[in-house]
Amino acid sequence: MEVSLSGPKVVVAKLKDSKVKRLGFSAPGFGHSGSNFVDLRRKCRVNWVGLKAIRAQVAVEKNNTPFSKEKVQSQTPVELLVGLPLDTVSKSNTINHEKAISAGLRALKLLGAYGVELPVFWAVVQPNSPHEFDWSAYLAVADMARCAGLRLRVSLNLNGCHRPNVMLPGWVLQAAETDPDILFKDKSGVLHKDCLSFAVDELPVLQGRKPVDVFESLFRSFSSTFKDYFGSTITEITVSLGANGELRYPSFPPTTDSEFTSVGEFQCYDKYTLSQLKQAAESAGNPLWGLGGPHDASKYDESPNNSNFFKDHGGSWNTPYGNFFLSWYSQQLQHHGDRLLSIASNVFGDLPVQLSAKVPLLHHWHEMSSRPAELTAGFYNSAERDGYDAVTEMFAKYNCMMIIPGMDELGSNPESLLHQIKQACEKHGVQVSGENSALVKQGTDNFGKIKENVQAGLKAFTYQRMGADFFSPEHWPLFREFVRGMERSQLDADDLPEGNGGGVSLSADSEARNNREMQAA
After folding, report:
1. Dihedral angle sign, alpha carbons of residues 223, 334, 258, 484
2. pLDDT digits (tens, 9 = 90+) for 253-273
3. 188 and 181 in contact (C-beta within 8 Å)?
4. Cα 11 to the chain's mean position, in Å?
5. Which of 298, 402, 411, 444 has its CA 20 to 30 Å from the CA of residue 222?
6. Shortest CA distance to 250 belongs to which of 261, 271, 239, 265?
7. pLDDT band at 306 (very low <50, low <70, confident <90, very high)
8. How does pLDDT run across 351-388, given as a tens digit for each residue?
9. 246 catalytic, yes or no?
10. CB–CB of 198/204 below 8 Å?
11. Phi, psi of 462 (to 5 degrees)
12. Does an H or E element contain 245, and which?
């Protein structure tokens, strides 16, 4: 679950006669000293948590060393980042909870984090016109990260998001009111208003402009505006390739982001996608195959076991028609990804930053031969076919690092699918980065699973996501111990032969500097 930062402010205080600082949240209207701290604990119901700066005795790269793409290929320690709240910048282009975020950045720096991930939304930057851009609030956040001594991974989201409620730009939605088929449509005719149909990428449907041209203008504006940050502060740019910022169709029900655990539905019923399907079917010599998606596929809330299309034995997915449709459906997703990565590579390719994009870990129902949740999302992956080989080959073509969420997921299905995707990445020489799917809760072994995956050859790991719950007494101590455990792994790995690391790359500040920064906080 994605968590936004809301509610109480973060405060950092020094206890009397102690070098240990305390991190917590302040209630509105309360001060930071004397009896108010007692009232604060009671009224906010937050226990103070000891925060001690971690000294990174062994680190391959200091935070003040310029980023270089060559180091990406050889650096062993995993770079640990933390995602900023999705609502860090509001829809009105202001910073939400600026003081709280600033204190959170300092706390992460003192803990030893490498950097943070900043989610950027198309609708915030370009709300009213395809010709106007406003990066002011995001520039301010970049300055905050730079002042804190943290690196930035910037995620350029070309999609909407339901939490927070950020949809597509208003002028894009106005175009959709005139022509609803520029949006994805499911079998029941319901529109997905957070993602443009891939079929209109190269059609002049946005005030006479093609979406690919609009995206290129957005990328170039970002490149020009943040030119002084590349390499020194911004070291990675993540490009959204589909629904929820991932390379996939919006196969989940509308208004659903990432918690859906069923199969989903095929998204091929807008007139532009149907036109492409019709042409493909006619070229294949079977015009009837182009009338629509599989008629016997399950609905959002139905089990795939009750579907003639997805069932393991005799399912129509494993027929000539099924092979035709699934091949075409997955190819349209790959063509869309290729178009966007080509644009991003042309704009950002010469900058001292790493290009990256997300591929979802759709492990639900992975035990079935048909892999139904992956099929509806656009990955033609089954017991008889590798649906990720062509995708990783595309990533390799543009030197794009692959980010895989769900590194905290437990069970045989996530492990099996993750292993398959990483094998494909290894085959094509694609760097792999990871994310978690939700804040780790007490009494679970999810941090252990993250650590296991981190030590299995990741380039970086982004923990999602900062917010009020992130700094709560139920979570912050767990996260702190996770970071310390990873640091200990790195210290132990220093005695191993080169190439057998597996810890996290932490900032290498001295304790004196840590103490000065804590006093400032």
Report:
1. negative
2. 876 655 666 789 999 999 999
3. no
4. 28
5. 402
6. 265
7. confident
8. 999 999 999 999 988 999 999 999 999 999 998 899 99
9. yes
10. no
11. -110, 120
12. none
Query: Which has the closest alpha carbon to 197: 276, 270, 257?
Result: 270
**CA distances to 224, 244, 360, 424 from 388, in Å:** 34, 19, 11, 7
Residues 6+ positions from 99 with CB-CB distance below 8 Å = 9, 10
From residue 445, alpha-carbon distances to 418, 439, 468 in Å are 18, 12, 22
Nearest to 32 by CA among 476, 514, 24: 24
> Among the residues of 58-199, which ranges form H helices?
69-74, 98-111, 122-125, 136-148, 170-178
Catalytic residue, candidates 2, 265, 435, 487: 435
Structure tokens at 160: 């909407």
Query: Could you tell me which of 134, 60, 23, 25 has the C-alpha nearest to residue 494?
Result: 60
What average pLDDT does range 418-430 have in this prediction?
97
> Which tokens hold the place of 440?
């780790």
Q: CA torsion angle for 345, 196, 203, 329 (degrees, to 10)? A: 80
Catalytic, 435? Answer yes
